[in-house]
Amino acid sequence: MSRKYRLLMLTTLIISGCSMCYELIISAVSSYLLGNSTLQYSITIGLYMAALGFGSYLSKYFKKNLFNVFATIELSIGVVGGVSSLLLFLSNIYIANYAVVMYLEIIVIGTLAGAEIPIMTRIIEEDENNLSVTLSSIFSFDYIGGLIGAVAFPLLLLPKLGYFATSFLCGLLNILCAILILWRFGERIIRITLYRVLAIVIALFMVMGMIFADNISNSIEDGLYRDHVIYMEQTEYQKIVITKHRDDVRLYIDGNCQFSTADEYRYHEALVHIPMSVASARSNILILGGGDGMAVREILKYEDVDTIDLVDLDAGMIRVCSTNPNITAINQNSLKSDKLSIHNVDAFEYLEASEQIYDVIIVDLPDPNSESLNKLYSNIFYRMCKNRLKDSGVMVVQSTSPYYATNAFWCISQTIESEGFHVKPYHLQVPAFGDWGFNMASKEDLSTDIQFDIETRYLSEENVSALFLFGKDEVAEHVEINRLTKPVLMDYYNKAVELWN
Description:
Blueprint: H1 3-34, H2 37-58, H3 66-82, H4 84-94, H5 98-128, H6 131-184, H7 192-211, H8 213-224, E1 228-234, E2 239-245, E3 248-253, E4 256-260, H9 264-278, E5 284-289, H10 294-299, E6 307-311, H11 315-323, H12 325-331, E7 340-343, H13 347-353, E8 358-364, H14 371-374, H15 379-387, E9 389-398, H16 406-417, E10 422-430, E11 434-442, H17 488-500
Helix pairs in contact: 1-2, 1-3, 1-4, 1-5, 1-6, 2-5, 3-5, 3-6, 3-7, 4-5, 4-8, 5-6, 6-7, 11-12, 16-17
């Protein structure tokens, strides 16, 4: 193959990687905005593959001026892909039917990408006259490019650049590929001057998009959240946003509110003080999740606590909540306590490797809206917790809302019970969340006659007994156990989200 056509192979590599990034961006943004990541990724992959086939079919109708067609495809993919994340966020704010924009983006990008390879094959074949070599080379570069894009997006692009800068960068790369083609094969392109001017203008637009990505992100985030965004960071694992309205500071992870300072004490008192008051000993405490430091703050109220192990996968979350003054003022710098040891590993992996036995285990994880979180609500996970718990120890699990996600709440309860625990479900009103529930569990039977030996703002010995009572509309009787091999909880939870959104 001649040197000039090797340039086309290089563009195939880059274009394929960028196309893969666009699809991952669409899937990730849709999961971020709508939840149910399995559904979003499945739709994106399926629709993209169908669009590739459709684009390949349409390519046969282009018989003349193939270099013009190829350059037009590259410019079009660059434009649509470059603004893909911006359009998705704007449509979520201003358009009622977000899915239409999502589907159109997938179809357009897939169709254009699907037409690219057949047209490139015909261009090279006209001069080289060796179809087998041409096809093998093109497909090799196409598949390798897809692999590069699939690896680069989660490990490098998204954590370092975020959604907007990543899509603008990929769009710029597509346009640069078009510029290379326009420069190398200009004599075979009709109206080459127009194409060159257009490509340069679009490239400058993508560069400006990358430069002002943070400004765009701030404006978009202000539209997504009720209050003013004062801090925002995309860590390796999640999007952290802090908002503030007067004295109310709120922390969001991937768009889901984790706490409001107006009422977070209700949640964390119920999460911590009920199991701590029931436990016969509380020397060694394990917290799974809880990277905001609020649960640690409450645990430190007990003088007989010697050690606290906090397991949170995201070191970025710990850093933000131990240094941001808006958060440290609330958690009282609890993440810097000498009693605390922080482990930035997956909770599942920590339980597998640990040999420590604990008096109290507090499971304060985000809601089970993804596959990675769902496994932390599975029967195997609770079995591992049981192995790390003393015979007289107590575990508590935040368990979503028994009112808004009834099936999900009782699925968690029965999954814990299936591993031989004695379980006591309870709930309370947290204004920022509504009716919110927990499941307290032990290897031994538990008493709900609870007395507190620390100061609280909400809990009292008079009102605590009411927390263990549920209304008829808050009880689900026929739910399945959540297993690693059959993750029914995620389906229960996502259906509840769809119902109440």
